[in-house]
Structures are given as structure tokens and as C-alpha cells.
Design brief:
about 15% strand, 5-stranded mixed sheet, homodimer, alpha+beta
Chain lengths: ~500, ~500
Amino acid sequence: MITIRPETPGGFPEFLPAEQMALDDAKNIIKRWFERFGFAPIETPAVELKDVLTAKGSLDKQIYSVSRLQAERNLEAVLAKPKKGEEKEAKERLSTLAEELKIELSGDDDADRLALARVLMGRTSTDMALHFDLTVPLARYVAGHQGNLTFPLRRYQMQKVWRGERQQSGRFREFYQCDIDVIGRGSLDPMFDAEIPSIIYQIFSEMQIGRFLIRISNAKILEEYLLGVGVPAASLSEARSIIDELEKVGTARTVAALVSASGIPAETAEDVVAFLRNDVSTTALIERLQGMSGSDRFAAGVAELSRVIDGVRMLGVPEDYFKVDLTIARGLDYYTGTVYETTLVDHPGIGSICSGGRYDDLASYFTDEKFPGVGISIGLTRLISRLLSAKLIEAKKSTPATVLVTAIDRSRMGDYLKMATSLRRSGINCEVYFDNDPLGKQLRYANRKGFFFAVIAGEREFAQNSVQVKTLTVGGSHTYQIGDLVENVRYLHTLIGKEDPPRR
Amino acid sequence: MITIRPETPGGFPEFLPAEQMALDDAKNIIKRWFERFGFAPIETPAVELKDVLTAKGSLDKQIYSVSRLQAERNLEAVLAKPKKGEEKEAKERLSTLAEELKIELSGDDDADRLALARVLMGRTSTDMALHFDLTVPLARYVAGHQGNLTFPLRRYQMQKVWRGERQQSGRFREFYQCDIDVIGRGSLDPMFDAEIPSIIYQIFSEMQIGRFLIRISNAKILEEYLLGVGVPAASLSEARSIIDELEKVGTARTVAALVSASGIPAETAEDVVAFLRNDVSTTALIERLQGMSGSDRFAAGVAELSRVIDGVRMLGVPEDYFKVDLTIARGLDYYTGTVYETTLVDHPGIGSICSGGRYDDLASYFTDEKFPGVGISIGLTRLISRLLSAKLIEAKKSTPATVLVTAIDRSRMGDYLKMATSLRRSGINCEVYFDNDPLGKQLRYANRKGFFFAVIAGEREFAQNSVQVKTLTVGGSHTYQIGDLVENVRYLHTLIGKEDPPRR
């Protein structure tokens, strides 16, 4: 028998159960807080029509299209140069295919192959391609279902996306994105922008991944400020890219790059950097911005930012967890108002763990109606991979169960099953050991998988109508009456639950 | 601006938020019970290597492969016959492409196109295709990670799968499968087979979709019985297909079909149908089977079935919810022992909502080591679609929140936000109304989305430090002190929760 190597394609991450559970735990926390704020789930197909996906016409190189494998294999065969000595077989294959496809062959090999390839190409390619983000699908969804949706639409979406990244880049070609957006019809109050950071705050607090900082700005401010100091409109995009690197490359190189890109004097460029890089409090910075003279659009940006910061405070996000940061410059081709980035204070190398912002018009490619929105996206697979590498989260347990009911006397299986059933009824995840092995092996299994407790009952225990509960994580064991098992395990569970709450 | 139609490809289902929430609710129940029994989540990439997916070589026609869109478009251009009058442009395009690909053109149009197509085909196709089930990926996963897994491996997997079904068939091309399997290394106790029906029982009981029946059999029994009455081994597969239709077509046609397919006398075929179709109790049937003489393999099948039924009883599945049904004949090319099917008693038209069984060797294409397993699969998307159509589940709410905090005095936004924050802290999903609209519009929004409660506070309420809670589903409202809001909403929530528990 031919044995096929059990491998996955490069760039497609796959986790062992313990890591998968860490990812799922994060996903559950994200989902819970999205719903706590009233966001409803939607899911779009993995594929969109090619025309839909390429509406913007930008990411083409990374888009995976979907084909029909069987036709594709025939197309490959038709296009393949016959190997030396196999010309006859190749010819016969062409004839067979031609017969199937009802195509008359001319005898001219090139022309015949081309004719067959034309027909097969039509059968191979479809009108579909895999989505590369969740924004284009959302835009298509909103435009397509607008008559059946209630606005403002609060939706979240946690799905895989696919990008044909170059293999050397170390990036994932498949990863989870967790997106949350509010979409208004016609207009959308700035209070919606204020709510987003408080959701981020709740999620990352509960994930317990150390200190984090939600950086907030407004696209209008940076843009109008740059125009105001003399950066030509045509250089705006480049200037933003330079500013985006400010933290990484430092003041001197940023000043030089700004001068060369926009033609502003070095002194002005220094002022720009000093303006962007500031160490005053959020309140002082907003006051300073409010005192500055600028275009109407600049003033509008400052007013929006100020309202958003007020809202963030009213929503109870502690002062230590957010900050106005005028250097946020990524994505500003797309965002038109509030922008957010979130970083781990003690692990800046991990980069932004969550970014987003406000946009004027979500679905302009699909409808004339205006749908402004605001949202953020968490790149979950990348985030969890990095948190695992940095040991900020740990993948220890490879079972969602906390209790293993061991079976040392298989004639009492009915009793073991009854214990398991009562534990499960009270909400405790548990497993019964079914294979015929000595207790030592059963306990090794329990330790390897990361169970917290082992329930043990043999002749002695059954004689006394009792049961032993071994705490595997810290050692030690207790004996209870069988009737008190559930109550006691629930209690032990609560004690341990402080570190690792039961998965609901 | 060109406006693109916001459509999805045919055969790819997409739900509105309320339906999506119904699907998510079912998914949560399934997930909770999988974990309650100690099954750990895994996820495999959406794609597998083509060699892996086609190892069995069967489903080819339905497999979608993954290509690179940009190269594919060039390939299409090269293969396209130039339109009349556009020959010159077509020629120029070929030259440009040839330059990019560094191919010297010969001047012979056919040969040149073929040469370009060969290179572009290599750039278009990848080594990947979308998985069409979760069994092949599981087999590859187990074989590939066996050194890092603890056996028996209890895993569940809830992912989309893709099948290039014919559009007319009305089948989905993308749908969720929820699979659960236990995989042993070398051997696997029959008790694992007994556990599966009790998981199914818990899931469908909690889903409250009416009476259901878990039908259980053993592949060895039907097979050995048929061989025993003289059905030739070569006709087994056909005989099974005929028996699978028994309920649908009735006794007479089944007898005729069996006679013609296997050459057994009509009298024998009648005995077969009578044997399969029986109305005795589970206990009586097992006793009858135990009393029958048959091959060793027949006896082994009966012994396994008897142990499984004992286990199902010990696990507390009520007698009304399961039944031995010897007519289960689907999938028996694959299953080698216990088999399961589950149907809705009052909606037989919906068909099997969950099927599975025991197999001897999961990963034979990828490794020589033997991995026996037992599992079931729920086709979730299809199930939910049918339950929605049959109105067995309802999609009423389009928000996961139960409380809408209205905002009739926008200067008190800080107070509204504080109320919302305290509700959220106590686990209640809630939303604040941010747009500047009259109360009537805010309440209409709340009703449309399906909130249970609206919190209302204006000048009068604030003057008395109180707040009004309107119960939207049944009408009526109560006034509480602001400090007692959370406690009272929690209480009201519990009352309503009997019908619609809070989503955790």
C-alpha cells in the first residue's frame, strides 16, 4: 500500500489540543465581551465572487481563487510537455479527453492542446475566491442585506481568512480574524467610537496577558496638521508611512526622511516630531490641541477625539490603559476619523495586537447608500502564537475535563458511569477511564492530559460506600461518601477555579 | 463609479443575524456537551495537500482546489481566443506577458500561447485543496502528530467543509460539520461506543427540538446475517443499499430488489425483511440475536452490540430515546462495528440528524500503525436550516443583548453608561442607545431587535434617583432606585431566562 506523508501545506498553522484550547479560551473571552456589548454574530462564506473581492483591485497577488480539482488535473495533463518515450501515451490521453469533451482534433499537436485547454480552463476555474479579510465581506453583506438589517448594525465576525503570503515571510496564510464593527445608515454618533476601547479593555484584562495600552488618535488631526505645516497633499501618504516608523527609527532619521519626502524645512520637521511625540497627560494634550489654530477639519478631528476620550472615561476604562497617540499613522488611507492601536506595554516587540478605526463609507463599491462605520480587528492566530512563544499564556491542559473517574474494578463500571453522570449534570467536565489498565497507568494518563482531580473507588471504598478524590495538581487526597461526591468536587473545583475557571 | 452587485456564489449559505444566533446557540450546546465528556477541540487548516485529500481517490469530482488568482487571470487571458478586431491588442498582451515571464516567443501564435500557458499553469495551481470532510484531516492529524498526542485521543472538531455539489441538487457547497471521535492506539474498548449515544442524547435534549430516536446497530450483524442466508459477498454492498431504502419503499419492493440483486429465493428475502423489521423491545431483540446461530463474526457483533446497549443504559439514556435498528445500512463500507443514526420522531422527513460508527483503522493511508476509532458527525448547517424551515427552532432575536439602556437626555450619557457598565459587570449583555432619537424610535429599535428589557431614565426619574425598566416581551414596567437596578434586572432576567437563558 502506498503510504502518503501526513503533512500540511506550508504557512498553514495547526495546533496540538492544548494550544488549540488556549486559542479557544481567548476566542471565548472575545466572543463573550462582544456579546456583552450587544454585538450579534454573523458569518459569511469563506468565498466571495471574484468580482466582489477584487472591487478595490489592490490585493490581487495574495488572493487564492477556488478551482475544480478534477478539471484542473486534466488541464495540467493537456498542458504538460510529454516526457521522452511517452509521446504515444500522451497522444492517446489527448484523444480520450477530446472524446469526453466532444472536441474534434485537428492533428496539429499545439492547436489540439490549445483547443482542449480552452475548454478545460472553463471547467477548472470558478467565479469564487477565498476572502482575505472580513471587511470586504461585511461591506457586501451590508449592501446585500440592508433591507433585512436593523441599523445601527452591531456585528462581530470571527472567521478564518486566507492570504497567499510568500512562504519566506514567516506569515500565516490562514488565520483567524476577530472583527467587531458598528455600521450606521447615513450617520453614526461618535459615542460608538468611544465604546470600542472599552470593549478592548475588557477583553485584554480578562485574558490576563499583562499591561496593555490602547492608543487613540483621529486621522483628521495628523492629516490636517501635516498639511498645515506645508506637507504637500501628494506627499501625505509617504509622510504617514515615515511617521509610522517614528518609534522604531528615532527622531533624527524621521526628520531627515520627512524633509526629503515632503520638502519641508528641517526645523519644521523637528517641530512635527516634537508635536507628535509628547509626554503630557491625555487631558493636557487635548487642551493643547483645542488651543491650536488649524483648519475646520483639524478642529473637527480634535472635537471628535475629545468626545471619544470623554466617553472612554465614562465607560470606566482606567486612565493607565489608554492614551492619545498622534503618531498612529497606519491604515489612514482607509480610516477617516478615530483610529486605535493596542500594544502590550512589556512586550512592544509583539506589535499592535488590535487595530481599527472609523470609516466614512463602508460599502461604496456595492451601493450608493452611505454606511459609515467604526470597528476593530484582532488577528487571533498571530496573537495566540506570539503569546504562547512569549509564554504570556500557557498551554498545559490537553483536556477540557477537570475530573477523571478511574476504573480499577471493571465490574463496577455502572457505578463509575453514575458518578460521571452526576458530575456532568452539575456542570463539571469529566471523563471515565475505559481501557483495562492498572491504576498507575490511569493516573499517569490523567497527569499527562492535565486533569485536576482523579476519582478512585475500589473494593475498600465501595464496601464503605465511599470514594477517594485525588488532587493531581497539588497532591493529596480526600475520602467522601459517594452521595457527597458531587458537592465536594464542586467545592474543590471552586478552589482551583481561581486559577483556571471551569469552561462553560 | 462601477457598482458591483453584492451577491454570494450559489450554494453558499449565509444567515441574517437572528438565524446566525440560532446556529451559534446550537453550536454552543454541542460544544458544551462534547467538552462535558472530556473531548478536546482541534482544528485543521481548511486546506490539505492534494495528495492527502485524494489518498482514497474517491470524491475527486467534488473537491475544490486552491489556485493563485493573479496567475489564473493571466492564464485565462493567454488561453482566450482573441475577439474579432482585437487581435492586435491580444498579440501585444502576449508580448508583455512573455517579457514578464522571460519567455522568447516564436511567432507561431498557438505554440507561443501554449508555451506561456505551461509556465502560467505552474504559477496558478498550488498543492492545496479544500477539505470535503473532517475525517481525512483527522486521519492525517493523528498520523502526523501521534508522537505528541495522548491516546485514547478524545477530540471534537467543528469546522466548515466544502463540496462542489451540483447547483441543482439544492445541497450546500459549504457547511459546518461537528465531529466527535475517540481514537485509540492499537485497540479501543467497546465502552467508548456506548458513550457516544449518551452525548447525542444530552445535545438534542438540550436543543429542545422534539422527540428523537438514536438507532443503534452493529455492522457485523447485518453483514454476517446476509452472508449466512446466502447473499454472495459480491452482492453485499448492493443488498445494503436496498435495505437502506426499506423504510421508504416498503416490504414488497425490498423483497423483489433483494431477490434480483443477490439471487436469494423470495422466501429467504421475506425472512430477511421480517428479521430486520421487528417490533420487539431492545432487550427481547438482543436476546433473540444471542439465541441465533451464526458465524463467529456474527456472534462478535451481537456481543459488542449487547455491551454497547448495557453501557448506554448505565449512562442514563432513557429507554424511549434509543433502539436497536438492524436496518441501518449506510456507511457500512467504512464502519466495522457499532453504527448510529438519529432521527426526529415527529419529523422523519428531516432524515438522519447525526450519524456515525466504529472503524477499525483510521489512518491506514498515512501510517502502518493501527488507530481504531468511533465517532459521530452532525451536519450543523443543514440541520439548522431544516429546523428553521420546520419551525422547530425560532430565530426571533437579532441581538445577543437582553437590555437596551435608552438615552432620552443626552446630557446624562455618563449615567446611562454607568448603568450599562454595572449590568455588564454582573454578566448581563446590554447595549446603550447612542443616536439622538425620540424615545418612541428607541423602543421600536429595541422591539425590532428583540431586547427583553428597556431601561428608561429622564428628568423625572433622575430627580428621584430612580430608573424605569420596561419589559418589552410581555409589556408592563417597574420603577427601581438606580442602586437596585442590577439586582432587579438580574431577577427579571431569571424569570424570562426560563424560556431564553442568558448567553454566556
